[in-house]
Amino acid sequence: MNKIQKVAALFIVVTVCFAFSQVKFSVNARLADQDPKKIYTEKCASCHGERVDAFVDRVWKHGNSKDDLIKSITYGYEDFGMPIWGGILTKKEIEGMANLITESLKTVQQYDFAKAKPAFNGPAIFKSNGMTVTLDTVVTGLNSPWGFEQLPDGTYLITDRSGVLYHVDKNKNKTAITGTPAVLAEGQGGLLDITLHPKFDQNGWIYISYSKIKEEGGKKLGTTAVVRGRIKDGQFVDQLEVFEGLPYASTRHHYGSRLVFDKKGYLFISMGERGQEKVFPQDISTSPGKIHRINDDGTIPADNPFAKDATAKATIYTYGNRNPQGLTMDPVSGLIWETEHGPRGGDELNLIKPGVNYGWPVISYGINYDGKPITPISKKEGMEQPVNYWIPSIAPSGLTFVSGSKYSAWKGNLLVGSLRFNYVNRVIMQNNKVVGQEKILMNIGRTRNVEMGRDGYIYVGIENPGTVFRVRPM
Ligand code: HEC
Q1: Ligand 1 center to 360 CA (angstroms)
Q2: 10: pLDDT confidence band, cut at 50, 70 and 90?
Q3: Mutate which of 34, 39, 47 to test ligand 1's pocket (most atoms within 8 Å of Cβ)?
Q4: From the candidates 48, 254, 292, 341, which is the catalytic residue?
């Protein structure tokens, strides 16, 4: 007997009983409709991803009104791989699924992606739990202020993705430093991060990451590379390439690429998987989709996890990373933290540990941009779980710990820039776990970077127009 026949049979029995006894009673057994969340996990998650709110964050092909949803689920789209559920699920269960999807849509729509345009122009006051802050403009008129460093004299070095390294003085004047490498400023590429050597005061070393170009067979290829140099008389000199990701790729996105020195003086470099998830992140004989660790002169630390594996790239520190655009050291513990962009949903916060596989693209909490699933699983033995993940994607860029004495209510918190929703996410950490989150600096703009300056102020870089703000407590 199939389910419809069962229902029919039971209906007859019930009717007969009712007629005989004239006593009201309710029908139970299998006819009890199953909980929509349970149905989703058992019957939908394998194709649509584990989280229903990740699934609903999509461009709808067949409409998302309740009637549309009921129709899609009942009749399916067999030619496109969507099974017919009418006959497998009861009418009530299908309605329950439509309600679950509608509810999840509300969660996603509260972020108001479409309406989230930069609304900030000019002095503004932002209040957050225990802190009131305002913004001072450090510099504006840039394209995309990707990297930021404050020099000992209080002035700034800012990398603009368009390909220019600017020196910015205290009066908002910017001067282009000449002699920096040519960059492939297309797509997500360009002049990317900047960091100073821990002993910059003595040696003057500056490290810059960028999209390096190679011409091959009339085609332009690119990769993530890091160059070390010094600034003399407005020129970038004494250059040494300390890292070159291999192989080059023809794509123009997912370069990474953040630079962080740890307390021992090792340089960490994040590199994205160049949009080729099936090729690079799980293959340790290649550089893309990894976090790398090198000495300050580009040589390889003897205890790097794959230093003795002849088939591996010896610079690799972690693998299975997607597009890590946030990397920072906790100044208290010395631990390295990373954020990476997920696909649609599933942006991650990870604690970076040597030799660990972060699982992309085998495990993920996100799904494809077209709504099609990438992987049905989000957990697997031997692959690290993120410390936190965001659905929908906030598009994390820039990552820093609040330190110093200027922001007592935020001290020790992690700040994550949101490119997508135009705010900074304040993440409250305890014992390396996320215990709370708050959106701060709402509508500030597409947040490209957030960093602590040497002077103890938080600095935030936004796009359109490229501007760097100092966050000043009031
Ligand atoms: C075997 C894989 C698979 C399973 C299992 C599956 N779906 Fe789908 N579903 C798809 C595909 C593929 C599409 C896109 C169809 C198309 O392109 O027209 C889709 C489309 C949909 C749509 C329409 C989306 C739109 O863009 O308009 C809804 C709603 C939906 N599925 C709900 C469900 C629900 C609820 C379940 C569980 C009861 C489920 N699906 C189970 C593969 C699946």
Answers
A1: 23
A2: low
A3: 47
A4: 254
Ligand 1 nearest-atom number relative to CA 62: 27
- Which amino acid is it at 155? T
Q: Is 81 in the pocket of ligand 1 (CB under 6 A)?
A: yes
pLDDT digits 0-9 by tens, 192-238: 999 999 999 999 999 999 999 999 999 999 999 999 999 999 999 99
Encode pLDDT of 156-173 as tens digits: 999 999 999 999 999 999
Nearest residue (CA) to ligand 1, atom 8: 82
Instruction: Measure the CA angle with vertex 205, ends 184 and 284; round to 5°.
Output: 55
* CB of 60 sitting under 6 A from ligand 1: yes
The span from the CA of 310 to the CA of 313, in Å, is 8
The 3-state secondary structure of the chain reads: CCHHHHHHHHHHHHHHHHHHHCCCCCCCHHHCCCCHHHHHHHHHHHHHCCCHHHHHCCCCCCCCCHHHHHHHHHHCEHHHCECCCECCECHHHHHHHHHHHHHHHHHHHCCCHHHCCCCCCCCCEEEECCEEEEEEEEEEEECCEEEEEECCCCCEEEEECCCEEEEECCCCCEEEEECCCCCCCCCCCCEEEEEECCCHHHHCCEEEEEEEEEEECCEEEEEEEEEEEEEECCEEEEEEEEEECCCCECCCCCCCCCEEECCCCCEEEEECCCCCCCCCCCCCCCCCCEEEEECCCCCCCCCCCCCCCCCCCCCEEEECCCEEEEEEECCCCCCEEEEEECCECCEEEEECCCCCECCCCCCCCCECCCCCCCCCCCCCCCCCCCCEEECCCCCEEEEEECCCCCCHHHCCCEEEEECCCCEEEEEEEECCEEEEEEEECCCCCCEEEEEECCCCCEEEEECCCEEEEEEEEC
Helix 91-109 with 66-75: angle, nearest 10 deg:
130
In order of start, what are the domains of the chain with their CATH numbers?
3-114 (1.10.760.10), 115-473 (2.120.10.30)
Instruction: Answer whether 25 contacts ligand 1 (Cβ < 6 A).
Output: no
∠312-244-219 over CA atoms, to 5°? 110
Confidence (pTM): 0.80
